[in-house]
Amino acid sequence: MEQIKVRAHAKINTFLEVLNLRSDGYHNIRTLFQTVDLADEVNIEKALSGITLFCDNPQVPSNRNNLAFKAAELMLKEAKISTGLKIKIVKNIPVTAGLAGGSSDAAAVLNGCNVLLNCNLSYKKLVEIALQLGSDVPFLLKGGTQLGEGRGELLTELELLSEFWLVLVVEGEKKSTGSVFKALKKTSTKPPIFDKTIKYCLAKNTFNKVELVQILHNDLEVPAGKLFPEILKVKEELRKAGARGVLMSGSGPAVFGLAYTKSEAEKIAAKLKIKYEKVLITKTIKPQRLGEPNGNHGS
Ligand code: C5P
């Protein structure tokens, strides 16, 4: 095998609670990660030497500032073979939106190189490497529905019982994840519904539609709302348009509105498109994983 194609899915956070600041500068969090169908296409090909990266979106860096490039460097180091890599990314996930597009491309490179370069690294080792790239990269190695604790890397797999449709709106300029965390004034008061519902769902390992809507919460919304007030307006517009629940994803600025059906999502999106430029429809999925039957294998 000389090349491999991997779909790098976007993620949303349907719940995100910031627990405390750690001595390493990160925060302990408790979050529910959810993979969505929207994905970049990442093609990794063996080359004679060096790493080259091409992306069809000029906003995306093609050097070490790109997490996928760094991921390739780390995997070449692990593989201990003299080869180069040529990476091509077709970007479908909005960039710097809070949808983990860059992190997902990096996770795709880790998974893809593990197969392409016959590294045979264990999932545990891949998680270790992923964490050097970003707190959400470990989740993106497998995706699906997972509870993330610690920095987000201590993962527990869960099951979402029904598919959700989503209307994603990306409005406003991204502020760095670090600056949103910093702007958070930590309070310990939280409506008890989150704990109650979340504990109940974690105990049975599953969520249904109604439960997920009840769980929606993101501690980073308040500080992000101060840094980019557009998100509050987008939330209001999504609610007015009939979304079953609305929330900012990650550290923003992407906001999603939940719908039970595709046609419901289409009606909401049509209303939002009158006001906003970047409006996308997608749905929750459990992605095929590399190495699984019908997984996204390369040539
Ligand atoms: O891990 P990642 O590179 O995505 O994190 C970017 C920044 O976000 C970190 O440098 C840190 O300031 C903040 N962060 C945090 N706690 C987390 C994840 C990120 O404080 N669990």
Key attributes of the depicted protein:
299 residues, alpha+beta, Ribosomal Protein S5, domain 2, Alpha-Beta Plaits, 2 domains, eight-stranded mixed β-sheet, four-stranded antiparallel β-sheet, 12 strands, 29% strand, disordered C terminus, binds cytidine-5'-monophosphate
Can you summarize this structure?
This protein has 299 residues and is of the alpha+beta class. The protein has helices spanning 67-79, 101-116, 123-133, 137-142, 177-183, 192-204, 209-215, 221-227, 230-240, 262-273, and strands at residues 3-21, 27-47, 51-55, 84-90, 145-149, 154-160, 165-169, 206-207, 217-218, 245-248, 255-259, 279-283. The chain has ten helices and twelve strands.
Describe the structure.
It contains 10 helices and 12 strands. Strand 5 (145-149) and strand 6 form a beta hairpin. With 299 residues, the protein is an alpha+beta fold. The strands form 2 sheets. Strands 1, 2, 3, 4, 5, 6, 8 and 9 form an 8-stranded mixed β-sheet that branches. The chain has 2 domains: 3-158, Ribosomal Protein S5, domain 2; 159-283, GHMP kinase, C-terminal domain (Alpha-Beta Plaits, 2-Layer Sandwich). It is 34% helix and 29% strand. Bound molecules: cytidine-5'-monophosphate.
